[in-house]
Amino acid sequence: MSARLEDYLGGPRFVGTVVYEPGWYLLSVPDEAHAELLALVEEGVELKPAARPHVSVMKGEAPCRNAGDWGTAFAGEAVAFRVAPVVHGENGLHLWVDCHSPRLCEMREHFGLSTLRREDGAYLVNFHLTVGRRKQAVGARKRPQLRLSPQSHIDVETGMQHL
Q: pLDDT per residue over 24-61, tens digit each?
């Protein structure tokens, strides 16, 4: 199951740096944070750690608002995010943690990209950080989801949007 908002309470808080590459905004994650997250992986799971740990903020999407800012706005900004300290691996190959950051959601909204919110304004968006890849794939376990776009879906069990 994916993280719910309450799963982030008391979870590790890190700060990354926004990077823009053609067609892609990402949040670069410091090596120390990645090392801390690798320690959460279940003992005995053989994996290759991610060579470039990051959180994808906008990838394969085009802005429908503020297009003139695309590629320049937010680059270099330090952004805080929280991690739900549970490693997921339902696709059978990648191992990741869910991340939450209101600031990353604000960045998406600046460009007119989807972000799910509750009536009280709280963002219901799980970003993810791939901590590594299994050396040997295992059977995938599919979760029920509602596909919003090729880049995003809503987890039926939690009601959280995943990017």
A: 999 999 999 999 999 999 999 999 999 999 999 999 89
Where do we find the tokens 């972000």?
A: 115
Q: Identify any residues that bridge with 24 across adjacent strands, giving them in sequence order.
A: 21, 59
CA angle, residues 2, 75, 78, in degrees to nearest 5: 60
Q: What is the pLDDT of residue 154?
A: 85
The whole domain housing 96 covers 5-162
Q: What is the pLDDT of residues 122-155, one digit of tens each?
A: 999 999 999 999 999 899 888 788 888 888 888 8
Give the span between the Cα atoms of 161 and 14, in whole angstroms.
Answer: 21
Q: Which amino acid is at 65?
A: R
The domain total for the chain is 1
Query: SS3 letters for the chain?
Result: CCCCHHHHCCCCEEEEEEEEECCEEEEECCHHHHHHHHCCCCCCCCEEECCCCEEEEEECCCCCCCHHHCCCCCCCCEEEEEEEEEEECCCCCEEEEEEECHHHHHHHHHCCCCCCECCCCCECEEEEEEEEEECCCCCCCCCCEEEEECCEEEECCCCCEEC
